[in-house]
Amino acid sequence: MGDAKVLADHSAHAITLRGTSKTYGPVTALHPIDLTVDKGEFLTLLGPSGSGKTTLLNLIAGAIGPTTGTILLDERDITRMPPRERGIGMVFQNYALMPHMTVFENVAYPLRVRREHPKAIRAKVMESLDRVGLRGLEDRKPRQLSGGQQQRVGIARCIVYSPAIIMMDEPLGALDKNLREQMQGEIKRLHKELGTTIIYVTHDQEEALNMSDRICLLSGGQIVQLGSPDELYFQPRSRFVAEFIGESNLISGRVIGNDRMKIAEDRFILVPKAERIEKSEHLVMVRPEKVRISKLDENTAEGDNVLSGEVVSSSFIGGMTRVTINTENGLSITAKMVSARAHSRPEPASKVRLCWSPSDSVVLEN
Ligand SMILES: Nc1ncnc2c1ncn2[C@@H]1O[C@H](COP(=O)(O)OP(=O)(O)OP(=O)(O)O)[C@@H](O)[C@H]1O
């Protein structure tokens, strides 16, 4: 018995879901899913509105019970355990602070509920406020703080009792872009310092790419891909993933060899060699920043895919310039390049060549 407990404490998984689903009458909010979250991992639940992110978060937190399946915390079945006994910390988008209480009292609240000694409470609250950069503001009321500061209180109130798992539901959703980016950095730093498992919900793909160890991309109540930010960006499995994360060019054609795809009557492009690709109609994805634009008379690298076409539009968006080209064989391809000064940017109606390496083509699953 004792040994079993020691083993459980050393398990690598913080959370395990097995066949967990949620339906509301005829509505399936979450199809049965299997998911493990490793200890100390930063896992982001990403997906469009209605994809099931909040449902999944609420199932883990215990705010709702699953229709089927089990939920394990540290290998312990918590499927029917009340939320408070799970010891999972929550940070919400709307901060959920108590308006009549000071910052100190808001942060102290979870410790008072746990009946900790006042001395210990003071020390822990001050340490948490230090960690989130709020020392000195402990006597203010929430309404005397900016949005970013209020969310720091929300985070301090969560980390103050050292939960092993913290769930954050769109915590930066109410903040403007600059503050969001700053807070992303702060949450990442806290995660590193505390080594806590974080399950983070967002519908912002850049936030997910920037912060996560792994991203769990949801659509229609199902996991469509689970992997590192790199995998989701560079090796998307499906059209949905390719389009939801980053920008993409999609080229349809018929895979006919293990490294060739026919995109027009007399046109082929090279794709990475793969034994397993079914020889049939497929979509190939190429990221715009992998497409290079050159003048018609410039040499292109050997082995590259090369198409020629006419520039339709060119938009200067600061550091990058986005250029759309209609190719001779009827494709519309977008290239993103590091901006040059106006006189050397491709102009609409100019004829250009565009090329990319076959290894930057990703054949998507049908
Ligand atoms: N209590 C409920 N009763 C009926 N349907 C529900 C209920 N809660 C959620 N749903 C449905 O389940 C699906 C998933 O909802 P969920 O809130 O998990 O999505 P989400 O990805 O968190 O969306 P958002 O980003 O908009 O918060 C939606 O179609 C939603 O309408």
TrEMBL record:
<dbReference type="InterPro" id="IPR027417">
    <property type="entry name" value="P-loop_NTPase"/>
</dbReference>
<dbReference type="GO" id="GO:0015697">
    <property type="term" value="P:quaternary ammonium group transport"/>
</dbReference>
<dbReference type="InterPro" id="IPR003593">
    <property type="entry name" value="AAA+_ATPase"/>
</dbReference>
<keyword id="KW-1003">Cell membrane</keyword>
<dbReference type="GO" id="GO:0043190">
    <property type="term" value="C:ATP-binding cassette (ABC) transporter complex"/>
</dbReference>
<dbReference type="Pfam" id="PF08402">
    <property type="entry name" value="TOBE_2"/>
</dbReference>
<dbReference type="GO" id="GO:0016887">
    <property type="term" value="F:ATP hydrolysis activity"/>
</dbReference>
<protein>
    <recommendedName>
        <fullName>Spermidine/putrescine import ATP-binding protein PotA</fullName>
        <ecNumber>7.6.2.11</ecNumber>
    </recommendedName>
</protein>
<feature type="domain" description="ABC transporter">
    <location>
        <begin position="15"/>
        <end position="245"/>
    </location>
</feature>
<comment type="subunit">
    <text>The complex is composed of two ATP-binding proteins (PotA), two transmembrane proteins (PotB and PotC) and a solute-binding protein (PotD).</text>
</comment>
<dbReference type="GO" id="GO:0005524">
    <property type="term" value="F:ATP binding"/>
</dbReference>
<keyword id="KW-0472">Membrane</keyword>
<keyword id="KW-1278">Translocase</keyword>
<dbReference type="InterPro" id="IPR050093">
    <property type="entry name" value="ABC_SmlMolc_Importer"/>
</dbReference>
<dbReference type="InterPro" id="IPR003439">
    <property type="entry name" value="ABC_transporter-like_ATP-bd"/>
</dbReference>
<comment type="function">
    <text>Involved in beta-(1--&gt;2)glucan export. Transmembrane domains (TMD) form a pore in the inner membrane and the ATP-binding domain (NBD) is responsible for energy generation.</text>
</comment>
<dbReference type="Pfam" id="PF00005">
    <property type="entry name" value="ABC_tran"/>
</dbReference>
<dbReference type="InterPro" id="IPR017871">
    <property type="entry name" value="ABC_transporter-like_CS"/>
</dbReference>
<keyword id="KW-0067">ATP-binding</keyword>
<keyword id="KW-0547">Nucleotide-binding</keyword>
<dbReference type="InterPro" id="IPR013611">
    <property type="entry name" value="Transp-assoc_OB_typ2"/>
</dbReference>
<dbReference type="GO" id="GO:0015417">
    <property type="term" value="F:ABC-type polyamine transporter activity"/>
</dbReference>
<dbReference type="InterPro" id="IPR008995">
    <property type="entry name" value="Mo/tungstate-bd_C_term_dom"/>
</dbReference>
<keyword id="KW-0813">Transport</keyword>
<comment type="similarity">
    <text>Belongs to the ABC transporter superfamily. Spermidine/putrescine importer (TC 3.A.1.11.1) family.</text>
</comment>
<dbReference type="InterPro" id="IPR005893">
    <property type="entry name" value="PotA-like"/>
</dbReference>
<comment type="function">
    <text>Part of the ABC transporter complex PotABCD involved in spermidine/putrescine import. Responsible for energy coupling to the transport system.</text>
</comment>
